[in-house]
Amino acid sequence: MRKIRQSRELSGVLGIFIFLAVSALMTTSTFAAEFRNRGEYEVTVTNLTRGQRFTPILVVTHKQGVRLFELGSPASAQLRTLAEEGDTGPLASLLASMPEVKDVVTSTPPPPASNLIDPGESITLRVETSGAFDHLSVAAMLIPTNDAFFALNGVEGPTGNNELTLFAPAYDAGTEANDESCESIPGPGFIECVTPSNPDGNGGGAMIGGGEGYVHIHAGIHGVGGGLPTSNLNASMRDWRNPVAKITIRRIR
């Protein structure tokens, strides 16, 4: 009986040892695969509008299933900040805290105003990728608007030497009424906003609320602001037709 018990105990110890060895081997293999697949995506964003600027560009690599928003659903508080203020900080911090996210990069914010991406201009950013972290999301605010932004929302990146070009529409975060008034739109130097007391034409950026309550395709600028005629956005200058951004993704290294 003692020999049988000792044999069973030895068998149990060996089983645990084998399990731990296999687990360590699997972990090492997974890490090695991740290391072998490490690289970077080069992401180039081009502003296709005639009268809108892009605020700092947020680029993130992540696993499949991560989403910045869902059409027809309310925007998160972090996305609201990006869409109304052009501030990527809260959304970048939220994404960086998620284990499903690999890397988060944001272009340099103003000042100076030249850090904004003007119509017809492009900017290129690099973001890390590896293994299952092969999806990307991109977002930035359009100014001058109340809460318009463009985005890629969880797209699979290219493999090998392939290049992927996508075109993004403008979305409305649905968090602020589109009053098209300088008092409620952030940003520097809008000609429609120039007054004796505001010779530089800077926006006010007041948060007014009253949005639709869900993310949807933006309807553009219609010149319907509620302020003085010189305080409203000029639709003939600021309106657009989708898409608003060209985004080219290339895997390097």
What does this structure look like?
The strands form 2 sheets. Strands 2, 3, 4, 6, 7, 9 and 10 form a 7-stranded antiparallel β-sheet that branches. The chain has a 4-stranded antiparallel β-sheet with strand order 5-1-11-8, with no helix packed on it. The chain has 2 domains: 1-36; 39-252, Sandwich (Immunoglobulin-like), CATH 2.60.40.2130. The longest helix has 35 residues, at 2-36. By secondary structure, it is α+β, with helices and mostly antiparallel strands. It has helices spanning 2-36, 77-85, 89-96, 235-238; strands at residues 39-47, 53-54, 58-62, 101-106, 122-129, 135-143, 148-156, 163-168, 170-172, 216-217, 245-252. Mean pLDDT is 88; it is low at 13-33.
Write the topology of this structure.
Blueprint: H1 2-36, E1 39-47, E2 53-54, E3 58-62, H2 77-85, H3 89-96, E4 101-106, E5 122-129, E6 135-143, E7 148-156, E8 163-168, E9 170-172, E10 216-217, H4 235-238, E11 245-252
Antiparallel strand pairs: 1-5, 1-11, 2-6, 3-4, 3-6, 6-7, 7-9, 8-11, 9-10
